[in-house]
Amino acid sequence: MTAIIDYDAGNLRSVEKALKALEEEVVITRDPDVILRADRVILPGVGSFGDAMERLHRHDLADVIRQVVRQKTPFLGICLGLQLLFERSEESPGVEGLGILKGEILRIPEQKGMKVPHMGWNSLKIRPKTRLFAGIADEAYVYFVHSYYLKARDEAQVAASTEYITYIHAAVEWENVAACQFHPEKSGDVGLAILKNFTTWER
């Protein structure tokens, strides 16, 4: 069973629908016991970094997420869910992220003729031999909606990158933790294949 963490950050139903299309058993929950017993856990989300961290703390979910990671349950962050795994964001100065991975979230710089937020399809440069992108062709296209991007401290944890005005760490993979800045649930067959790969992960 896959648990989708509900912390009032949106984008839950589209992730649930994608998993059900893969015939996965899925539950949307903020119950710590259900989350900690799940075979896999997903943290989706849209919105601002600071508001999201406030909601995680309000619902006593920040430490639950850290415990999920410590007990080696496969964990996937999506969009804002990726950003929250890191230490800090320019969007919300002074707010600490979960700090599960090292790095920071930066504002996409302005460039004449280019729009921010970045909305649309971009190709991925995929690092070989990652589990999340097994069987996915390099330069595959996925769908992004974001104004801030990840700069991970450890390049070895970067599973895929893309370019939009700047060089963007588009996905990470480290031990039992993976995360995507893009939306696999909105990325057609490629996105479903990525989610399918995640559903094969075991503790």
What does this structure look like?
With 203 residues, this protein is α/β, with parallel strands linked by helices. It has a single domain (2-91, 101-199), classed as Rossmann fold, CATH 3.40.50.880. Helix content is 26%, strand content 31%. The chain is built from 6 helices and 13 strands. It has helices at residues 12-21, 32-37, 49-58, 62-70, 80-84, 188-199, and strands spanning 2-5, 26-29, 40-43, 75-78, 88-89, 103-107, 118-123, 125-126, 141-146, 148-152, 158-164, 166-174, 177-180. It has an 8-stranded mixed sheet with strand order 2-1-3-4-13-12-11-8. Strands 5-6-10 form a 3-stranded mixed sheet. Strands 7-9 form a two-stranded antiparallel ribbon. Strand 12 (166-174) and strand 13 (177-180) form a beta hairpin. It is globular, with a radius of gyration of 15 Å. The chain starts with a strand and ends with a helix. The mean pLDDT is 97.
